[in-house]
Amino acid sequence: MHIQIYDTTLRDGAQGEGVSFSLEDKILIARRLDELGFDYIEGGYPLSNPKDAEFFQRLAAEPLKRSKLCAFGMTRRRGMKPADDPGMKCLLDARTPVVTIVGKTSDFHATEILGVSLEENLAMISETVAYLVSEGREVIYDAEHFFDTWKSNPKYAAETIRAAAKAGASLIVMCDTNGGTLPEEIERVTKEASVTVNVPLGIHCHNDCELAVANSLAAVDAGAVQVQGTVNGLGERCGNVDLISVMGNLALKKKGYEVLAGDDVQHLTELSRYVYEVANMNFRNGQPFVGASAFAHKGGMHVHAVAKAAHSYEHIDPAAVGNERRILVSELSGRSNIIALATKHNLAQDKELMTRVLDEIVDRENRGYQYEAAEASFELLVRQLAGDFHPHFKLDRYRVSVGSQSNETVTEATVKLAIGDDVFLEVAEGDGPVNALDAALRGALVKRFPSVATMHLSDYKVRVINGEAGTAARVRVIIESQDDEDSWTTVGVHENVIEASWGALVDSIEYKLCKDDGGK
Amino acid sequence: MHIQIYDTTLRDGAQGEGVSFSLEDKILIARRLDELGFDYIEGGYPLSNPKDAEFFQRLAAEPLKRSKLCAFGMTRRRGMKPADDPGMKCLLDARTPVVTIVGKTSDFHATEILGVSLEENLAMISETVAYLVSEGREVIYDAEHFFDTWKSNPKYAAETIRAAAKAGASLIVMCDTNGGTLPEEIERVTKEASVTVNVPLGIHCHNDCELAVANSLAAVDAGAVQVQGTVNGLGERCGNVDLISVMGNLALKKKGYEVLAGDDVQHLTELSRYVYEVANMNFRNGQPFVGASAFAHKGGMHVHAVAKAAHSYEHIDPAAVGNERRILVSELSGRSNIIALATKHNLAQDKELMTRVLDEIVDRENRGYQYEAAEASFELLVRQLAGDFHPHFKLDRYRVSVGSQSNETVTEATVKLAIGDDVFLEVAEGDGPVNALDAALRGALVKRFPSVATMHLSDYKVRVINGEAGTAARVRVIIESQDDEDSWTTVGVHENVIEASWGALVDSIEYKLCKDDGGK
């Protein structure tokens, strides 16, 4: 059975803390969802802001190809004909095939928050739906606080959805607005609602109890034909249900359901990362199905088993959602992790090199290196051991100093290095010692390698490895860098945090220069 | 009904990508879980590394008060008596009241991965459990790949848990090792398993389908009495089930269950953040129940309604889990923790001081300070605001430099400070800039305050707060110090890591001096 996927990333998702889409962002995401064949895409709330109104004009001029576009709004204002309500006008001006209307299911919210009588609330639902239908729109009705009200006042809850159904809504969406409903309640209420109205049901869940995916699946099993949610679970508080997980489960885990056009779930990983990119948010590594860690194996026993039979510790083939297996190198792992990583980098053929790599990694891990989050350093190390690494520059010396007096802090770094036969001495100030060193190092290098100007450090992490020796302990620095195309991570370890940072910094820049040489 | 909470943050959680606990980290977390009354705490896998073995020795010397400590291991090696297996010796040497043994449920894993016959696998389970029971241990049996095997070969799966039960295991834990099982399958299999053995059942879920919480609750509803998981859902791939969400649901949402000692769920937010801090990981804002956004309201309609009636868009009272409502967009976190902390320090009586403290903390949190894991800095700040702080020394200036040439790194710090009317100028070398500064500072102070010689820094953590600016971002440094009697933690924040470290260092030494004065 085909389950409709209704995306509200651009409307409810944008309510999430730290989420803010520009008009162009919204259009990019809508086009991408359309390419993947999402059934419905809710584009925004045209009455609430001009950006959303403009979005609909842009899409009216160049419509979506596969998905139905929805404009979102509320029931008409109290004591007013729909035709006179500016909200209705905005919705019609959006020129979408579908309009989604949210209404009050809760008697408490109708009378106490909105301040209208229970009868007027029913009239608002009914007249709004009927008006939009008469204007040629497909109308989806979102029943706010549906489950909470079904538990406290089932009679009135039923009246509200009957009003919407009778007025011509094509679908009634049961909203778990506060995210507090449990799967067994979702199942029971969905079954009861499905015999209350003669219109198909949809489900709209929030993740406040970490049950949004289970709740959406429970509603589908109980008869709902549409799931509303957002890509990556963006949304207010703990987020809306993550449609990625919903689709992964419906298409690959549960029996008898289909989403999108079947094979399109192979693009879920790409979609997830695309939306994070456009929203300028960090990936969530542990995200089910599509996270960078979702098929990453660290424990030695697991790695050993996965090498023998991939399904040993994987519930699906990572490729089914466009993801990939990763083997992490770490203190917990046996040699099998390193072998797997080396195989990925096509090292396994050269047995003798492989042994050297293994020995070196084991030795370095004992000294505190960690390559699981530093594949760029790993690659440089392997090239070095293979005799295939030619450093672009040679450090003579560096020096960095930090001094503080009367609340003023001054940081200065000098770097002296050689590129071929030419010697460069560079000085720079910075906000901190690593920033100053980075500036001095790149200041020297950019004269010969202009492309280092296009990269920058995007994250910097420090970890004391054996904490018991206090500040004299060994320190591991992880640096993440990026240019216009890629991001990469490098590692440095030393007793001295500056020296450890320097190691990671040099690896990062060498990796960039190798990359630009076309060296793999 | 009381549901047992079994924490494996320190073992299975440590398998998570980017998770790496020092010995001290592990002890801190175990003590905190013990304070909250977790039923079982799995401390590690003593055979796998010396750090875990050392952890158990430390806890044997000073045992937990409320929780039962568990050592984790595998069934005995093939063709060997348990008494001859070095793994068993390690487990007994750990001197824990409980031993948790994982064994193969899967016929495939027994024969193809482990390479033993199906009969030998049963003997390995049975003899291992019986041996540890005969040595006076409570034995919990973890049945790996339990659900997958129950679906593919229910007869053999049943034989494995019967072998464990018959040999004296006190509890059989059904593991969804690959995280691919659906709630309806968990429910069915749990019911079937509960009539197969006469021993109580536990559940151990992973979150690969974003269903770990629903799965754990489904098992409890079907009769499981123990839930295994980790704080914040740390763990391999997509993580283990998050015990925070499990406990929130069992204690506050579902009927008829109790966890911990009832009221202890009020500390879940504090616990969650504490574990993130110790693990040096960022909080997850959208985390159910305890995330900083979990009760944050952004949509205008929601804010309006929440102002009228708090429960409008909240499924529980945030205070029930120690969290708080946030209306305006702000970076503030953990006000309730501040209040709790202030109450702990007997500040709550002085309303006016309390207000000043709150205002100052809010301001400092906006700048990146965090006092949840830095109580010594908090105490100094409060004393300062109460006019009850008299610094023991006054810094004139410091300077630290790091230089590297021909593989030799030289670090030198100078500190000039005044104690009363006397001025001290001191120089020291060190393994790193903070180590050198610490040495110079204490070198000056020890002349007047000999007791500073009895303290040392025991841990040092650095976190970039707004990572996107790379090395120029703001940096938070947390320093843990100890003397013969206590350990305490201080915080410093600055764009410059050296200046941030200096702030934490000075707080640490002032705290020590105040403490020795008998100052509270």
UniProtKB/TrEMBL annotation, chains A, B:
SMART domains listed in its UniProt record: LeuA_dimer (SM00917)
Gene Ontology molecular function: (R)-citramalate synthase activity; 2-isopropylmalate synthase activity
Origin superkingdom: Bacteria
EC number: 2.3.3.21
Protein's GO biological process: isoleucine biosynthetic process; L-leucine biosynthetic process
Catalyzed reactions per annotation: pyruvate + acetyl-CoA + H2O = (3R)-citramalate + CoA + H(+)
Record carries keyword Cytoplasm: no
Keywords: Acyltransferase, Amino-acid biosynthesis, Branched-chain amino acid biosynthesis, Isoleucine biosynthesis, Transferase
Pfam families found in the cross-reference section: HCS_D2 (PF22617), HMGL-like (PF00682), LeuA_dimer (PF08502)
Catalytic class of the enzyme: transferase
Pathway(s) annotated for this protein in UniProt: Amino-acid biosynthesis; L-isoleucine biosynthesis; 2-oxobutanoate from pyruvate: step 1/3
Transmembrane segments: none
Domain spans labelled Pyruvate carboxyltransferase: 3-269
Membership in a protein family: Belongs to the alpha-IPM synthase/homocitrate synthase family.
NCBIfam families: citramal_synth
PANTHER family in alphabetical order: (R)-CITRAMALATE SYNTHASE, ALPHA-IPM SYNTHASE/HOMOCITRATE SYNTHASE
Annotated protein name in UniProt: Citramalate synthase
Species in which this protein is naturally found: Lacipirellula parvula
